[in-house]
Amino acid sequence: MGSIFHNYKLLLQSSKINNKIDDYTITQELALLTENKPQGKILFDRICKKWHGLIDSLHKGDRELLLKMIFDICNYNEDYNKMINIQDSKLFIDYFFFLAELIQQQKLINKLN
User: Cβ neighbours of residue 20 under 8 Å, at least 6 residues apart?
Assistant: First the structure.
């Protein structure tokens, strides 16, 4: 998770995407996720619970950016989120989550090209 997050930060810096995130922005985005994509909210909660140690250990700026990264993945595709949430195995949630993040990073790389 650490190296995926590091790559995410580097891609955001390279693409000059506005990565100014704060607690208020995250709260607003989570409210939208709860209203519009209930499977995404479930996935967000599951991922945050699983990675709470990493999330809590980061300083505020990185913590907010990591939560934004997780939010972006959970906001991507409701059908995909439903498929991940159906699986009970912890292996599946990690595997699919990492694949989703790699897809997201590839999209950022494509925008840079």
Answer: none
Residue 15 belongs to some domain of the structure:
no
pLDDT digits (tens, 9 = 90+) for 9-62: 887 777 766 556 667 777 778 888 888 888 888 888 888 888 888 888 888 888
Contact yes or no for 75/67 (Cβ under 8 A): no
Q: Report how far apart, in Å, the C-alpha atoms of 64 and of each of 22, 77, 79, 91 are.
A: 6, 22, 26, 25
**pTM of this prediction?**
0.72
For the chain, the domain total comes to 1
Tell whether 4 is covered by a domain. no
| Residue 8 domain flag | no
Instruction: Read off the tokens for 23.
Output: 């607690």
Closest among 49, 50, 30 to 40, alpha carbons compared: 30
On whether the CB atoms of residues 93 and 47 are closer than 8 A, the answer is yes
pLDDT digits (tens, 9 = 90+) for 66-81: 888 888 888 887 887 7
Q: Which domain does 56 fall in, by range?
A: 20-112
Q: Does 49 map to a domain?
A: yes
